Amino acid sequence: MSHSTNVHKSAKKPPLQAPFYVVIFGITFGTTIGLAKLGAIEGLPPMSLVFWQMLGAGIFLGIVATLKGQRPKLLASHLRYYIIAGILGNAVPTTIAFTASAKIGTGITGLVYPLSTVFTYTLAVFFGMDTPQPKKIAGLVLGLVGALTIIGSPLLFVDTNVIGNASFFWLALIFTIPIFLACGNIYRTKAWPPNTGSLPLASGMMIATAILLLPALFASDSFQAPDFTGSTIDWIILGSTSLSIVGFIAYFELQRIAGPVYFSQISYFITITTVAFGIFVFDETLTLATWIAIGFIFGGLYMVSKSQK
Asked: pLDDT tens digits for 194-232?
């Protein structure tokens, strides 16, 4: 893990490892959305899963950061960063996504994630962090078309009652996810504390997320602790925590080396993963259109990468 603190705040060409980080976080986080649905089936409240995976991963990364001489700082500027980044990019959107996946399905929930790229690019241009570029716009559109194709094609063939019976409240609420994510993408880049590496920020944000969730957990009577008996719920919590450790290292490293628009492409791979999870866990069918759409997404990622100067 690099100690570099030169956070990417402009549209420069990202390093070669940037696409790798995009894929890693998209897959790991997308899988946790699927695990949230499995957890809900087993009786684990989604908010409890968010709490335990954030707390466990945050503590683990904090220990690793400390051993590497990068102990998370508790200065006012850092605490503010942890809290705001935790609210915008983690606590609110992740809780909504995990709960919605249990209530209206992972596929429908995954529909909204590609929109975060559009919102992020719009905000980045507005704040002068990026400029309108035809190739970048084309790449974003290509990726968006691919992601929507993945979700849209199976929805065309399912019983309309699947959507008709879904809670209007949750259908409306999931469309706030990309707005929170876009605001978080911009904030983390602009407010990145100086002389701070990726590991301590990841740790601080995740622990802050867990703390922020505590009042809501107890107010909604959703708190559930693992029983450490090797139950399915224990394995789901452990699996989600492990995925978060890997995913959020990639998440903050990507934020450090690439601009917020490039970073936002993780949403496409979250969509791919939620669909894949449904195919292999819930016996959904992988269509030719899905494979074509995946090609669009990778093509879009390549175009955006090449458009960076």
From this structure: 888 899 999 999 999 999 999 989 988 889 999 889 999
Distance in angstroms (rounded) separating the CA atoms of residues 220 and 223 = 8
By CB atoms closer than 10 A (0-12, 13-18, 19+), residue 2 is exposed
Amino acid type, 146: G
Question: CA-to-CA distance for 231 and 42, rounded, in angstroms?
Answer: 10
**Alpha-carbon span 274 to 102, nearest angstrom:** 13
Phi, psi of 125 (to 5 degrees): -65, -40
> For residue 241, what is the enclosing H or E element?
helix 232-257
Q: From 308, 95, 59, 309, select the one nearest 205 (Cα to Cα).
A: 59
Nearest to 44 by CA among 225, 240, 206: 225
Residue 108: strand, helix, or coil: helix
- CA gap 196, 15 in Å, rounded: 19
State how far the Cα of 238 lies from the Cα of 145, in Å rounded to an integer: 34
Instruction: Give Cβ neighbours of residue 161 (< 8 Å, ≥ 6 apart).
Output: none
pLDDT tens across 21-50, in order? 999 999 999 999 989 989 999 999 999 999
Smallest CA-to-CA distance from 270 within 94, 37, 110 is with 110
* Residues in CB range of 60: below 8 A, 6 or more apart: 241, 245
106 compared with 142, residue with greater pLDDT: 142
Three-state secondary structure call for residue 129: coil
| Of residues 64, 48, 61, 71, the one with CA closest to residue 195 | 71
d(CA 104, CA 88): 22
Q: Which residues contact 235 (CB under 8 A, 6 or more apart)?
A: none
